[in-house]
Design brief:
By secondary structure, the chain is of the alpha/beta class. The chain is built from nine helices and eight strands. Strands 1-2-3-4-5-6-7-8 form an eight-stranded parallel β-barrel, surrounded by seven helices. Helix 6 packs across helix 7.
């Protein structure tokens, strides 16, 4: 596959306007990116424009902190599904993970995964590697796999940093072939994108997609 088909073309800024959302959607259509990743409010708008194309509609859930209740994450997922979403990227409950309450973290993941999978949708879980130690990255990745998600994802892009290649290597080592890895946050060039793929990522979440493919 060309690099384009690994890219979730992303616009999650809270101040993103309708015109900016439309621009990102058109760029994804013109360049055959894998998906357009937006906040839940814009799902129906984007889905309508992508209808009949090879580009999927994706959105974040419990974003960017992961601190919503499970019930809210499930309700948000159901609304996005109703609005036409294809993929859900939820944020893990980082505080409960740091508290050592792994059963609560896994059940939170399982609830969104069940909601998504019942509707035939793909679910990714963001663990926010910037807030975790190496051991915690490995442990969180394993919990995501046990929770039945399709992908474990590095970052929201709204924390202290994006994800270095090292984080992706840790995640891939932890999950093996059970689930896939998505790298996001801080990827700004084709070289950086390729390095993430070489480290084991199967998808890339990027806002610099046009720059990465040399069309900025």
């Amino acid at each position: 596959m060309t690099l384009n088909h690994y890219l979730d073309h992303t616009l999650l800024n809270p101040e993103a306007t309708e015109a900016q959302i439309d621009r990102v959607t058109k760029e994804a259509l013109d360049n055959h990116f894998f998906s357009v990743m937006v906040n839940p409010y814009w799902v129906n708008h984007v889905h309508t424009q992508l209808a009949g194309s090879d580009v999927k509609t994706a959105c974040v859930i419990g974003f960017p902190l992961g601190a919503n209740t499970t019930a809210i994450k499930v309700a948000e997922s159901k609304q996005a599904i109703q609005d036409g979403v294809d993929e859900l990227d939820m944020v893990m409950n980082i505080g409960e993970f740091k508290s050592g309450h792994m059963d609560i973290v896994q059940k939170d993941i399982e609830a969104v995964v069940e909601t998504g999978h019942q509707a035939g949708k793909l679910v990714k879980v963001i663990i926010e590697t910037a807030l975790l130690t190496d051991d915690e990255i490995s442990q969180a990745s394993d919990i995501v796999a046990k929770g039945g998600a399709d992908f474990v994802k590095t970052s929201t892009g709204f924390s202290k940093r994006g994800a270095p290649v090292h984080d992706v290597e840790l995640m891939k080592a932890a999950v093996g072939d059970r689930i896939k890895v998505k790298a996001s946050g801080g990827i700004h060039s084709a070289e950086e994108a390729q390095a993430m793929l070489d480290a084991g990522a199967s998808r890339l979440g990027v806002s610099a997609s046009m720059k990465i493919i040399g069309k900025a």
